[in-house]
Amino acid sequence: MDALMLARVQFALTAGSHFLFVALTLGLATLVALMQTRATVSGSAVHARMTRFWGQLYVVNYAVGIVTGLVMEFQFGLNWAGMSRMTGGVFGAPLALETIGAFFVESTFLGLWIFGWDRLNRWVHLALIWVVTLTAYLSAYFVLVANGWLQRPVGYEMRDGSARLTDVGALLGNPTALLAFGHVLFGGLLTAGFFMAGVSGYHLLRRTAEVEFFRRSMRTGLVTLMAAVMPVVIVGGMQYRYLQPTKTGGDDAAAAVAGFTARFGPGDYMAPGLAGVGEAVMTGLWSLMWLLAMVALVKVWSGRWLVRGRVFHVVMVCAVPLPYVAMLAGWMFREVGRQPWMVYGVLKTRDALSPGVGSGTIAVSFVAFTALFAVLVGVNAWLLARLARRGPEGSALGGSPPVAPSAPVASVTF
User: Where is the sequence biased in composition, kind Low complexity (predicted)?
Assistant: First the structure.
């Protein structure tokens, strides 16, 4: 495998692994903030305990995800110096805003939220988690502004062989970025909904004494996935208006290929077939998730069957990976379909590769990065599974939560 393909596969693996954390982080942050709002406003003890339990899972996923994000960015300087040199003046701007204006604020307020439990005024503490959630959205938005510019470069001009930003509004308002942001936002909620329903289904399947806790958690997860499953496909479908013509085919594709050939010479400018595979997997899995959402629509208002439906619990446990796989397939369609361009119609991927970096050097970094990310993903999965199995009594977030009275399933009134 040559240096270019190794560098592309390496970045695909690391970016895809990092996105697994991002999706759950965005969705869980929102749900935890809503749970804490309910607990703060109404004084609901069960929602306070739900905030601690699901908040602990959110913190673990966030912490490990931070490491993958920092490691992933090293590759821009390591393997893609050609892109940084030519387009850094535009591409680097939203990434800098993400790091300075969003990431540091988000991590600082998250630390205050974690260690300020029972030390700060309850309304101040509630405000902290909402700041964390909103800055998580802001962070995702800036990353997608950078990615959207790679897909549809706007608001720039070339000077002395380098891209220079000329229109900040065009960059920040790029429809390719805005629609992708909406798609990712609802995708994160869908992921969190399936995750919450799956964990709750696991405990209800085992006939836990925490019936009320996981009944409410199951209902929250199901309502979330029902609310997100249609918007995620609607916003995703709106992006087709801005697809590169080399993805869609037809006369526009032929005209684009002719233009690229005239400017850059002969080459294969049509989207690779792997992009179509990603699109098919994405849409197929969405159809399956939509079907599960329709089943959830029936289940969610039935307290007895929500708790006792053992087959339904097994299905929801098995369904947890569905949104993850669908989103990775969607990114495959979006990113692979842009090839052979790093910046569509401006910079070819092979020209973005760091000069002088051979296949041997990239092979070493490929093995190192892949091993590191495999460990991080494995550790995160192990920690989430371990803490999720313990249930709310094992939550250490904010100190020991109040202990709910144990009750056998048969004594619970629905």
Answer: 394-414
